[in-house]
Amino acid sequence: xxxxxxxxxxxxxxxxxxxxxxxxxxxxxxxxxxxxxxxxxxxxxxxxxxxxxxxxxxxxxxxxxxxxxxxxxxxxxxxxxxxxxxxxxxxxxxxxxxxxxxxxxxxxxxxxxxxxxxxxxxxxxxxxxxxxxxxxxxxxxxxxxxxxxxxxxxxxxxx
Length: 159
What we know:
Elements: E1 7-8, E2 18-20, E3 26-28, E4 31-32, H1 36-45, E5 46-48, E6 54-57, E7 61-67, E8 72-79, E9 87-91, E10 96-98, E11 105-107, E12 111-116, E13 121-125, H2 127-134, E14 137-140, E15 144-149, E16 152-155, E17 157-158
Parallel strand pairs: 1-7, 2-7, 8-13, 11-17
Antiparallel strand pairs: 2-3, 3-4, 5-6, 6-7, 8-9, 9-10, 11-12, 12-13, 14-15, 15-16
């Protein structure tokens, strides 16, 4: 409704009521959200907040979201067939997109991350897609690692 103020939903004890943990599981007031349709709807509402965190926004309300690591997780990864080759990823919101190797970084604990959703969000690779990607990693010298694809080397950075 045009002209209606947007209401910011309150937090419980100063903490957001909605949390996404490092495995991509959504919680409301400490309890897991188990309805898949609600989670998929929340992903459609998710955006970066002006304050630097994340929030859910619909036409009438804004609700802060605590993200413990990355808001999205990569649940599977495969190499496309045909030319040019590219890695494809499936995210925990059931969407599929190409992996942008330029955004691939290795964080603390050797956890790989990439940018998704037109680089608007960070995604953490779960163990299975990480191992699949690791099959393609090559080493150059003592500390340089890269993935060669379509004749181009993509060096892995650190987060």
